[in-house]
Each structure stands twice: as C-alpha cells, then as structure tokens.
Amino acid sequence: MVLAQLGGSISRAIQQMSNATIIDEKVLNECLNEITRALLQSDVQFKLVRDMQTNIKKIVNLDDLAAGHNKRKIIQQAIFNELCKMLDPGKPAFTPKKGKTSVVMFVGLQGSGKTTTCTKYAYYHQKKGWKPALVCADTYMESDPVKIAVEGVERFKKENCDLIIVDTSGRHKQEAALFEEMRQVSEATKPDLVIFVMDSSIGQAAFDQAQAFKQSVAVGAVIVTKMDGHAKGGGALSAVAATKSPVIFIGTGEHMDEFEVFDVKPFVSRLLGMGDWSGFMDKIHEVVPMDQQPELLQKLSEGNFTLRIMYEQFQNILKMGPIGQVFSMLPGFSAELMPKGREKESQAKIKRYMTMMDSMTNEELDSSNPKLMNESRMMRIARGSGRHIREVMEMMEEYKRLAKIWSKMKGLKIPKKGEMSALSRNMNAQHMSKVLPPQMLKQIGGMGGLQNLMKQMGSTKDMMGMFGGGGDK
Ligand SMILES: Nc1nc2c(ncn2[C@@H]2O[C@H](COP(=O)(O)OP(=O)(O)OP(=O)(O)O)[C@@H](O)[C@H]2O)c(=O)[nH]1
C-alpha cells in the first residue's frame, strides 16, 4: 500500500469510528484493527504495529470519548503521536558542519539507490556552499576498496573538502564478505556518520535488512529512496526501529534534486491528510513568484480567498512542476485527493478547473462569495467551457473547501521570506485560538490552557504540525 493510501485508510477508519453513536471498546477495536491492517499492508513490521495498537489503547480513554469530546481528534492525535514515536528514535543523527571536515560513509544493498543518493547528498550540500567530495569505494571485484577509500579520504582532506562521502559496494557473492568489506572500510576511514540507504519498496524485509547492516557497522542515519510512485512507506518506520537511527532524507525520484530533508511531524501530518502549514508556507515562497507573494499573503491574511487566487495558484503550480508535493502540504488537499504518482491526473483536473474559470466573469473571479455562482451561472460556465455542470459544481465545492480552510489564516501576521517557520513564531496564543477549531480549543483548556501549552512546547510550529496546521477538516 503506498503511503498516500495508508493515510487515506487511517483517516477513513477514524472517520468511521467517529460516526458511531456510542464509542465502546468494540468500536475502538474495530477502528484499531482497520488501522493495523493498513499499516501491515504498508509493510510496517508486525511487532511495531502490535505495539502501536497496545499503546493507543493505553492512551485513549474510553470515558473521555463517551463524554462527547472530539473523538476523531483524540484518536487521530494518539495515532499521530505513535507514528511520530516510531519515526523518531529519540536522538538526532550526527550533522556535519560546513567548513569542518566530516567523513560520511554510505552503505546499502546493490540497487537500493546508494550511488544516486551519494550524489544527491553531495549536490544538496554543494548548493548550500559546501565543498563535497565523493570517494567511490564501490569497486566490485576490482582493486582493494579499503585502500581506495583511505587514499580518497586522505586526498580530499588535504584539499580541504568539508564533506567527504564514501560510497561502498552493495554487492558480493557472499553476504558475509559484503559486511566484512564494509566493516573494514569503516574501520579504515573512521566515518563521522554511516548512512544506511534503503529502497522503500523492499517490503517486510526492511526490518531485517536494516538490522543486518546495523550489526556490522555503526549506522547513524537512514535515507529511504524511491518514495515516489509505487513506493511503500512502511519500511521506513521499520528501518528506524531496526537501526534506532532517524531518517534524514528521502529520495523522491531519479533526478538530482528529487531529494527532501525528512522531518517527522510534517511527514506524519501529511500522511494522515492533516496538512502541513509550515511546509506549505515554505512552498509558497518557492512556488509563487516573488512579486506576487506580498499581495497573495496580504489577501490571504484578510481572509479573501477568491477564485482568482485559486486560478493564479494553479497557474504557478503547473509552471513549477511537482504538484503533488505542494498540494499534499495544503490542508484540505489531502494526499488522497492529489496522490503522488498520479500527478498527471491531478494536473489534468487542474487544467480542467482552469478552463472552466476562464469562462467566468471578472466579478465572479474576484469575489469571495460563492453564492454569486448560482445554477444558471454554472450552466453558462459549463457550456462556455465545454464541460459538464457536474464538473463546475465539483470545482466550486473544491473552492469552498479551500476557502474555508484559508479563512482561518485571517488576521495572521504575514511572514517574510526566509522566515517561514516564523509564521508560527509570529503567532501568539490569540492567533492560535482563532486558527484552532473551537472544540479542540476547549479540549486544551481554553486560552489559558493554550498559553501554557505553547510555553511548554516552545514553538507553535510543533503545534501546527501536531494539530494538522489548524485545518478543521
Ligand atoms: N524513482 C526513483 N529511482 C531512484 C531513486 N534513487 C535511485 N533511483 C534509481 O535506482 C536505480 C539504482 O540506483 P543506484 O544508485 O545505481 O543504486 P546502488 O545502490 O548504488 O546500486 P549499485 O551501484 O549497483 O550498488 C537507478 O536506476 C536510480 O536512478 C529515487 O529516489 N526514486
């Protein structure tokens, strides 16, 4: 099961449960069994899934649910926390420092994408002004890989490279020989960090494979590749558990820049279709041309999400490319609606929407009042664009949903370029209280509770991630 589907299945299971009139143990168990099935189908290791189920049962208090608290949010929160826990081994990976020499060794099986990932990793740092170097000790049946690795590292140290990446072999006739060679390269080059590269589509084998590598060398971080297309994501969770090391990047395609820093909370937020405001705001700065940014953010902060804004953003997004990435960050546009690997369909849908909007009047495009769009106008637009009225209605529904979510941005201070997470910093409890759904605010203990919580957490960014960025869906 691909990640987007996993998120969808979990959300559906929670939704079904919260539709039940009475939440008793049976209903909760059914919901958890559904989630368990979804996780297993996504190749999360059985033991991890079982532990998660036990933990959620411990956390979720049935009395709270019976008392009419927001059941969906309580369960969703518990699942959110458990998934985060699975992906967060509790200690960060070694982080190389620019200007100071670090040796980073890559290990992983043949075909896992190791060599590609070494290059992406080097390129990622080079773009940020580092001086990386790549030592290819990935010499199958030729020369002495240990000697090559040592000589390479020495040479690049002399050349003042600050990030020396050692690529090791991933193939051997004998598994034992592969691990022995890896151990020797590690001993000889003394890496500051060993990164285990894993193909996300290896399924249930992830845990054992990761563990085997960890037992031979001191794996300190994981990079999961091929998260695009048909990738199964569950293996990532298993690899973290097996190596007790965090995932630091994910590979999302064959190209050099299809490489993303991995952040647990936004990832899980997106996975559960909860959206990720901070990531989305970062994306706005990437996607929306500089000269349009202040105006757009101003309009959004005034709560005016018009059809024209939607149109312009569609335009920008089509120009920019990886549409799925942007939309999955936008609360409301869950990964299920804009699934990765189905970008073409999503793109076609957006183009359809834009054609329909081309048949609208300026007044309609610039109004944030969807009531203007009555049935006769919708018929005209459908005729004008050669589409069915059903499609116009569908687009309007999409618009209303987005506008509702965006309306929560009203009154927020506008972050400046380069301080995206400052969206959160800029917000005080007052703002947060506007953004959060009222039931959730009550659950936290009103304004007082919110202020306390914000103090404890230190930053509202975490809260945004935790609560799905304030989108009340
Ligand atoms: N779709 C996709 N393909 C990837 C990604 N990363 C690597 N690949 C592809 O996976 C294949 C194997 O990648 P390599 O980098 O050669 O793998 P390796 O682990 O170094 O394998 P050996 O060099 O043979 O040991 C290549 O076709 C890459 O283009 C990714 O994130 N997404």
Automatic annotation (TrEMBL):
One of its GO terms (cellular component) is endoplasmic reticulum. Keywords: Cytoplasm, Endoplasmic reticulum, GTP-binding, Hydrolase, Nucleotide-binding, Ribonucleoprotein, RNA-binding, Signal recognition particle. Its EC number is 3.6.5.4. It is an enzyme of class 3 (hydrolase). Residues 246-259 form the SRP54-type proteins GTP-binding domain. GO terms for biological process: SRP-dependent cotranslational protein targeting to membrane, translocation. It catalyses: GTP + H2O = GDP + phosphate + H(+). One of its GO terms (molecular function) is GTPase activity. Gene3D superfamilies: P-loop containing nucleotide triphosphate hydrolases, Signal recognition particle SRP54, nucleotide-binding domain, Signal recognition particle, SRP54 subunit, M-domain. Pfam families: SRP54, SRP54_N, SRP_SPB. Its main location: cytoplasm. It is found in: Cytoplasm; Endoplasmic reticulum. InterPro entries: AAA+_ATPase, P-loop_NTPase, Signal_recog_part_SRP54_M_sf, Signal_recog_particl_SRP54_hlx, Signal_recog_particle_SRP54_M, SRP/SRP_N, SRP54, SRP54_GTPase_dom. It comes from the Eukaryota. Belongs to the GTP-binding SRP family. SRP54 subfamily. Component of the signal recognition particle (SRP) complex, a ribonucleoprotein complex that mediates the cotranslational targeting of secretory and membrane proteins to the endoplasmic reticulum (ER). As part of the SRP complex, associates with the SRP receptor (SR) component SRPRA to target secretory proteins to the endoplasmic reticulum membrane. Binds to the signal sequence of presecretory proteins when they emerge from the ribosomes. Displays basal GTPase activity, and stimulates reciprocal GTPase activation of the SR subunit SRPRA. Component of a signal recognition particle (SRP) complex that consists of a 7SL RNA molecule of 300 nucleotides and six protein subunits: SRP72, SRP68, SRP54, SRP19, SRP14 and SRP9. This is signal-recognition-particle GTPase.
